[in-house]
Amino acid sequence: MDVKDFYYDLPQELIAQDPLEDRSSSRLLLLDKATGDIKHKHFRDIKHFLKPGDCLVINNTKVIPARLYGVKEDTQAKIEILLLKRKENDIWETLVKPGKKAKVGTRIIFGEGILVGEVVDIIEEGNRLIKFYYEGIFEEILDQLGQMPLPPYITHQLEDKNRYQTVYAKYDGSAAAPTAGLHFTPELLQQVKDMGVEIAEVTLHVGLGTFRPVKVENVLDHHMHSEFYMVSKEAADKINKAKANGNRVIAVGTTSTRTLESASDENGVLKETSGWTEIFIYPGYKFKVIDALITNFHLPESTLVMLVSALAGREHVLSAYEKAIEERYRFFSFGDAMFITDDIIGDEKQ
């Protein structure tokens, strides 16, 4: 399977640089995964395509302000670091720029000494393990000094940190937002609940590995980075009940999808669990849990385009992307959304 099979040409101006004022006013492309049929709506219309008994699965991870700017203690050279994952206590796996200045033993000063980091090891792909020294509570210091780790394709400054969080974000730990959830408002979620749709919360702390380009020609040679996930008993029970009753399990985002497909047994049954997943979903994969997916538009040749292609078929997905470009949809993290499901014609309720 060639990585080039998942390429599409995106005009630069369609990359959304800012979030919309009203989250739910994003556009929504509905894609019938069986036929490839397409409809154009707005995200707030999602409720017309949901049914009582459906189970909507959301990822309640919270993005930490993971980008830090500091200086080397000895030379005062500028250093930028991105916190990827906490390894133990105050040791974090990080991405450092410029890496060549961050040899083992290098000390980095942040916020005039409120926070000090020391490079203790260099691991795979040149990532650094950094041990932090500080007084007080690390999360509070991070909130004071850190910036939201927006993807490199977003060049505008984010005025409100909360716009790169879902309205249901709870548990600190992500280096990137589960962006499909950014379209929900508290009001829309309440309307969905009032319809009799169950909402199950799972957690997957998103790492940057999800967004890294696939650098090998053969998709099967790509290695996914590991991400930590948790499924509570309450969430497992809701999802299992929906499946047992013949109702749909609808994942909000590729992160919720990867959590469910990692945590279930061969029969698609979930139990309370947590762990690390490196699951890589690409065409040919047989889904065990999810029936439908709410997702954003993803980068060409990314593992996320491969995941949605596994659900709806590569040709249907690339055709839908082509149509979205034609219709001037907004792409990527702050962009518009897709709902991939069955029978979009028959599902709509007025």
From TrEMBL:
InterPro entries assigned to the protein according to its UniProt record, in alphabetical order: QueA, QueA_dom1, QueA_dom2, QueA_sf
Signal sequence residues: none
Reactions catalysed according to its record: 7-aminomethyl-7-carbaguanosine(34) in tRNA + S-adenosyl-L-methionine = epoxyqueuosine(34) in tRNA + adenine + L-methionine + 2 H(+)
Transmembrane segments annotated in the record for this chain: none
Compartments, as annotated in UniProt: Cytoplasm
Entry's Gene Ontology cellular component terms: cytoplasm
Record bears the keyword Phosphoprotein: no
SUPFAM superfamilies: QueA-like (SSF111337)
Keyword Transferase attributed: yes
Function: Transfers and isomerizes the ribose moiety from AdoMet to the 7-aminomethyl group of 7-deazaguanine (preQ1-tRNA) to give epoxyqueuosine (oQ-tRNA).
Identification of the protein by name: S-adenosylmethionine:tRNA ribosyltransferase-isomerase
Gene coding for it: queA
